[in-house]
Amino acid sequence: MADKVKLYDIPEEEFLLPGNRMCAGCGLSLIYRTALKALGPNTIITVPASCLTVLHGMQGFTSVDKISVLNTPFATVAASASGIEAALEAMGKDDEVTCVAFAGDGGTTDIGIQGLSGAAERRTNFIYACYDNEAYMNTGVQRSGSTPYGSFTTTTPIYGKTEHKKNMPKILEAHDIPYVATSCAAYPLDIYAKFKRAKKIKGTKYIHILSPCPPGWGFSTKDTIKMGKLAVETGFWPLYEIENGKFSLSTPSKRLLDPAKRKPIEEYLSTQKRFNRLSNEDIEEYKRYINQSWEYIKSKNLTTQLL
């Protein structure tokens, strides 16, 4: 379980320089800035085609300082990380340099899932971080496996997506890897703590981070933190860790085991244009989905307490 982090625990040293090519209010910028502080300079990051490629900038011009970054084709980020880790091991440096694959939901839940599953099955020693803005945002807001139910995208323009989002943390948990965690851009201390924890663990580590996206979701750029917190506070996006099979809810989500403590899901959905055509039946489906998700969490929580 990640250690509790206070604001003064986070180092002042910056690895993401001021000014980059991301959209105003981008959740990824917050996620990446915090993660790099936790990872430190002895880190190699590999990135597929994604919004993060845009953040890094064009050849010869980058907003990332002091950390080595490798751009790789869309489907190959986990394979790239596997190769980097193999090289570090051959040089005897795998204990002093952290290898990280950092990809979006399209490059994780869809295009990159085969490489990630293979690396996890081989117990490759790296951190895989998925920043989840719930669509292919870099190429025009197309539906991904992580797009939520009822969300309108450029490839689901009439009825919205008719399926719930793919539960990627659950899929990685089934690989029996030593560490799986969820987080959210609105909780930087939680992000920092989980990357610090993952860095200390040997084997494949997976962190899935919700990344609110103003242009893709349809909300004001000033409301990124508010949107992330609503996702958590309504119970739509639970924050938790699974370390060596032991499940634990993170502090912002612990009280939400009680359904009465959750904010109405309407507060989250009604503030985003991508959900502006949801029916009353769709709202009820969201309530059913959230309740079902939390029943599963309760069962995991109880099993852990009995161990």
Outline the secondary-structure elements.
Blueprint: H1 27-39, E1 43-47, H2 51-56, E2 68-71, H3 77-90, E3 98-104, H4 106-110, H5 113-121, E4 126-132, H6 168-173, E5 179-184, H7 188-200, E6 204-210, H8 214-218, H9 224-233, E7 240-243, E8 246-249, H10 251-254, H11 265-269, H12 280-306
Parallel strand pairs: 1-2, 1-3, 3-4, 4-6, 5-6
Antiparallel strand pairs: 5-7, 7-8
Shape: globular
What share of the residues does DSSP label as strand, in percent? 5-15%
Mean pLDDT: 95
Strand elements, count: 8
Individual helix count: 12
Low-confidence stretches: none
**H-E order:** HEHEHEHHEHEHEHHEEHHH
CATH class: Alpha Beta
Return Rg in Å: 18 Å
| Total domains | 1
Measured as a percent range, the helix fraction is: 25-40%
Strands of the widest sheet, in order across it, are 2-1-3-4-6-5-7-8
CATH architecture: 3-Layer(aba) Sandwich
CATH superfamily: Thiamin diphosphate (ThDP)-binding fold, Pyr/PP domains
Which sheet architecture does the biggest sheet show?
8 strands, mixed
Looking at the structure, the CATH topology is Rossmann fold
